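quick one if you have a minute, typing this from the bus. below you get a single protein, a line of residues and a line of whole numbers that encode the local backbone shape. could you go over both lines and see whether the tokens make sense for that sequence. anything you notice is useful, everything is just below.
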Amino acid sequence: MRLLDVDNLNTSYKDLQVLFDLSFHILKGEVVSIIGANGAGKSTLVRSISGIVKTRSGAVIFNGIDVTNRDPWHIVELGIVQIPEGRKLFGNLTVLENLELGSYLKKPKVKRKETIEFVFRFFPLLEERKHQFAGTLSGGEQQMLAIGRGLMALPELLILDEPSLGLAPRIVAEIFRTVKEMNDHGTTLLLIEQNVQKALSLSSRCYVLENGRIVLEGDQESLLSNEHVVKAYLGL
């Protein structure tokens, strides 16, 4: 069953067009990755899906509902949650307060206690730090908190924008292990990532984005055997 369909999306910042007739889909239960270099349009794509940036044309269909250019809060309410690049936590609030803010909508609020326990099972360190201010956490801990806050909204589709950015390899491995566990528990994931090998190892399918256009699609095996991907993104 298709959970998300992006169809011929065109997005611009004033006169600068960033996305060109971009189309892809995600099936329920999948992990799908979008890979590409800096400036390829990855974050613009995420913001277009989330309603943060308005599109010029095309459609975003989620669970059969056209959510194109709807308000971000409404898109979250329907079940799409974005973990933004850079985490965007409230540094002067505690870990627990940040998590609680993730469940501000009616349905997640009812299940807040249960979901916090669920998040603490994924990230035991957050339970240890629950009364600590978010701004005093390490980079890896902040990324865990950002993911945990996203889970508090009970998403059907969780979008992770560059979750490994700026983190040590050991922490990256931990984050990706947790991402796999989330998918094993039924969360559908869209992963925007520059760490191509990590993204491919985790994903059902992967799309390659270059200059605002999807230029390749495939699974891990097909993309790792593609000469362009190997040279451009793996440095081999």
User: Anything to note?
Assistant: The chain has a mean pLDDT of 91. The two ends are 36 Å apart (CA to CA).
